[in-house]
Structures are given as structure tokens and as C-alpha cells.
Amino acid sequence: MKYVDLFDEISSVSYPGRGIVTGRSEDGKYAVIAYFIMGRSENSRNRIFLEDGEGIRTKAFDESRMKDPSLIIYHPVRVINDCTIVTNGDQTDTVFDGLKVGKTFEESLRSREFEPDGPNFTPRISGCVLTGKSGFSYSLSILKSDNGDDSQCNRYTFSYEGKNPGKGHYIHTYMGDGDPLPSYEGEPTPVLIKGDLDTFTDAVWDALDDDNKVSLFVRFIDIGTGKYDSRIINKLQ
Question: Which of 134, 119, 168 is nearest to 19 (CA)?
């Protein structure tokens, strides 16, 4: 697969749903993580990202309008030791708890499957980015139904050494809009990582569909020290 422009790739899909980008900055100094959420329903759009310790959590922007918190209120990002975990659901906690007792990223996710939101059966996408003493590498996972058959969960894990500056991978939940929503297909897309923290953040946000984008989180982590700087953009703030 050829590396493609990340911003073009994001904007080319009408409704990618939730997405994770991991990779290495253009200057080679930073591990790059981006996570965005989109929404079609009022309940999904009524959300913001908030900082929570070293990670973030989702929160209802207007608590009085929240209809169902399941599947939309969770911690998308948590940090344990040298690993920054990023996912599209409460499996962030599953990975955190697994790593804490010595399981691998992949082993931790074996107890989970796609979301119980038929007929979409939204895939669970997850990432684990290692920096600091562990060097730099990252893994991405997708747990999805078998072409819409919810009797079987297909599990895929992809691991990358992340040696090349300006390159990374992008995975999202849906191939576009539809009813039911079509699940992501294939390997994570190889993408080019361009710009510094602020330039990159603004470009990802601008690439997302104006009507459906909800929130974006971006973090640049110094590969040598593990120190980081983050940005959050919420449509409702």
C-alpha cells in the first residue's frame, strides 16, 4: 500500500465515524497520536473531550440532553508506563488493566468484541503507542463482526516499528455513510504525517466533515523523554 496524504484521506470519506492516527512526526522527534469522534444523532453530537489525568474522557456537553451514555461516554486515552492507549470505547480500560497485570496489548483485547449496536456492529478500534525507554513503536487493533454477522468476531492486530519520519497509519470505524453503516475494511491506511502540533491539529480538524465532526484530540510525545503536548478541539465549545 502506498502512503497517502492523511488530510485528503480523511476528507475523502463522508462519514469515517471515529478515527485513530498513529505515526512519527516529520522532524522525527515525536510520536503522533490523533483521535476524533463524529456523530449523526443528537446524542452522539452532544459530547466534548476533557482532560483527565494524563488522558482524556468524553462528557455530555448538555447533561439534560443525554439520552443514553453507553458506548459514547468513556476514556479514549489513558497512559500506563511507556504506553499511551487510544481507543474508540471503554476497551481503553480493558487494555489498561491488562497491561497492568503483564498482558500484551493483543491479549488484553481478546476479552472484547465489536460494539453491541446492531445492525451497525461498530468495530472497536484501538492503539498502543510506546515511547521513552521502550523506544518507539505502535500497534493498532480492530475487532469487527464477520461482514455483519454478529455471531463471530474477527480480530486483527497490526504492529509497526515507526522508524520513518513523517509516516504513520490511520484506521477508522466506517467506510462511509449508510444504513447500516459499513465497517472499516482492510489494513490501517499508510499515511503521511505533516506539520508541527498546531498545524497538524488544524489540518485534521479542517479535513473532517463540518456537519458531523464532534471532537478531536492530538498529542505529540517526545520519543526520547516521553514528555508530551496535547491539543483538544470541541465543536460545542
Answer: 168
| Mean pLDDT confidence for 64-72 | 91
**Contact of 25 with 193, CB cutoff 8 Å:** yes
Q: Which three cell numbers stand for residue 14?
A: 463522508
Give the DSSP H or E segment for 204.
helix 197-207
4-234: CATH topology:
Glutamine Phosphoribosylpyrophosphate, subunit 1, domain 1 (3.60.20)
Closest among 45, 175, 60 to 123, alpha carbons compared: 175
Task: Kindly report, residue by residue over 2-44, the tens digit of the pLDDT.
Answer: 999 999 999 999 999 999 999 999 999 999 999 999 999 999 9
225, 57 Cβ separation under 8 angstroms: no
> Is the Cα torsion angle 174, 175, 181, 187 positive or negative in sign?
negative
- Provide the 3-class DSSP secondary structure of residue 152: strand
Paired strand residues for 31: 24, 221
